[in-house]
Amino acid sequence: MHSSISLSFPPNCSVLKRSHKNNQFEQFSFAPLDLQFCGLRKEAAVNFSFSQLKRCEIQNSVRILRNNVVSASVADNGSAPTSFDYDVVIIGAGVGGHGAALHAVEKGLKTAIIEGDVVGGTCVNRGCVPSKALLAVSGRMRELKNEHHLKALGLQVSAAGYDRQAVADHANNLALKIRNNLTNSMKALGVDILTGVGTIVGPQRVKYGKVGFSDNEVTARDIIIATGSVPFVPRGIEVDGKTVITSDHALKLEFVPEWIAIVGSGYIGLEFSDVYTALGSEVTFIEALDQLMPGFDPEISKLAQRVLVNPRKIDYHTGVFATKITPAKDGRPVVIELTDAKTKELKEILEVDAALIATGRAPFTNGLGLDNINVLTQRGFIPVDERMRVIDADGKLVPHLYCIGDANGKMMLAHAASAQGISVVEQVSGRDHVLNHLSIPAACFTHPEISMVGLTEPQAREKAEKDGFEISIAKTSFKANTKALAENEGEGLAKLIYRPDTGEILGVHIFGMHAADLIHEASNAMALGTRIQDIKFAVHAHPTLSEVLDELFKSAKVNTQDHSSVREPIAI
Length: 572
Hints:
The protein is 29% helix and 26% strand. With 572 residues, the protein is α/β, with parallel strands linked by helices. The longest helix is centred in the first third of the chain and has 25 residues, at 164-188.
């Protein structure tokens, strides 16, 4: 269906337009336009409010209308096209690509997303989503097996058991449901889903299709790379997918070993230790650094180890590398050679039923055609600036090219990728936006949960010493929270790191029941620049777990006498 609209402007009216040369905005004047719209939802094309015009500056919406007649003219690989098939093409349909696509449609941009595997990427299919299904099972199992806890609540439950295949099906079905939801949401909003592997063949040009047969080519005013990551497997470790596995394999839960070694004690390793021990396995952590959970605030790590590790069937080796792992074969167990991290000498040999490699993730950036645009990766990561704009081998910005999510390595979290994608779309729509990564929360969904946002205490002290200011620490316990005590879940701690002179929140760390949900009050406060002296007046329902944060902020001692936040009382 074709629609048309005529736009008339005052004789001296200037509008903002993006320059293809330097990716900046420049002014130009034009005569009345008679615009044809093809391939756009009508409401997206014509829903333009002229009352929004201010001093004759018409930003991105008009640019979209003016350029939607597309007839791609393609020169050689080194030349940029003069007109485009799409405003935005996104390579990768994970959580980051999906978030960018939906926001682009909201902004009225004609959008396509290229996916060579399945919609949803790692998070939906092999990560956050199916792992939460397994963790939901482990949580229920822990409750049913905890006789002391149940007795305190006056409950009596017979022995709890589980059906391994039914648990695995629950995880798989959840991933399928979320994947279908993401696909349908994009289709319903008019996002074109292009199937195949995407390769950049030149400025603002992408080919896609099956590997070796990428004959389809599209052009786009802006391209967003969102290809994500894959499990990182160190050298010397042989993965067979059965007895030596990555998180991709573990989520299928094809068997529950009696004894499993988990290499790495970060988010992934901790969550799988929660699942396996709840289902009856014994776990051995292998950690290269001198302490477990090295990425967490040290005080939180110490408490978490006391609750999540020590009482469970878990032992650990720290300060060692798993330099060689051989899968089980012909009745022989999995063999793991442990080497001292400092001396590099062989320290011990373990024989276990299975080994899970949870040593982090590596960017998936091979085959993107980055050499066609003079971009060199750094340890596989695509270099970007604070606005996610790709930087080439000469240190220059590549016009109209962005990279979000795990592929750029700034913060390897699904929701961070989505936030970066939204930030990029804001920029290509004409509104400058820089994402504050320190305000992005993270969570580990163990039982109890761990969550955090901002700096750890050592990081905050280092920054304070460097920049010349003092920091203070406030803490509150779940043992003082009525709702936690009603649930008989008083084990937990919330910790606030802040500047007493300004009230700025530097970091918040929580260990306890529903910590992953509680952290957002703190992360949103940081994102919005809310100071402690303001947020401590917020009201929380009683009795709720949210009062843990309420008490935390109220216990902070801020020295400043800032009256700028004082408001006149409102009569009701």
